[in-house]
């Protein structure tokens, strides 16, 4: 067993080898548009814990809502350790990405299964990418000190046309940034879906054996989300990191259970829709 395997094993289901990580760390970024569904974060986390995903992604200030719960079966903690101001519209004059001090140690203190940092590729903002690379390198050094797995989130963005950034699903842009994240020492990759889901095997291949979790992004229709999930799993993804598509859903628990059935029981998109309908 490798030095980080014990923590990695807490993230990934032992039978399927996959992980559902539900991100509810959006308040870290200071954007009002990210808060619907998590205004009462304690209640939202309690609902998710009862639905039993593999992991819940929280910040240093809110990890207590998960880790304060008793019992051995609670989801693993994925700890968000950096904060950026690149999601607003219009964009600020100065953009940044800042990492908390000693992220690996923070993960140990909060009993996290891994910590996560960003690797942005933003149009016309090479300094933000440089700051991210420095942050990943520093986080890797600290994580190695404590045998803490490092999740890197390579995000390629494009001008949205409305004064902000949107997701760039161009596989030719995603692939080199994912590879850079692996080269920098990522133990887990969290990456955007490609515009054509059938291209996702290229992202998996470029990660050279490092597990890839697919990011959910903004809210979409249930059918689209399940179809996308089925497609990326078929292409070799090791799981998903969804936030708003779960926490902003009318039935977050039902959505969680439907997605868990897809990841761990081999249920297809139609089956997931049926599970969700039965839970409503």
CATH superfamily: Aldolase class I
Q: What spatial order of strands do you see in the largest sheet?
A: 1-2-3-6-7-9-10-11
* Major sheet characteristics: 8 strands, parallel, barrel
Question: In the CATH hierarchy, what is the class?
Answer: Alpha Beta
Total beta strands: 11
CATH-derived architecture: Alpha-Beta Barrel
Q: How many separate structural domains?
A: 1
Number of helices: 11
N-to-C order of helices and strands: HEHEHEEEHEHEEHEHEHEHHH
Derived structural class = alpha/beta
Q: Radius of gyration in whole Å, from Cα?
A: 17 Å
Note the beta-strand portion.
15-25%
General form? globular
Pfam families: DeoC
GO molecular function, one term: fructose-bisphosphate aldolase activity
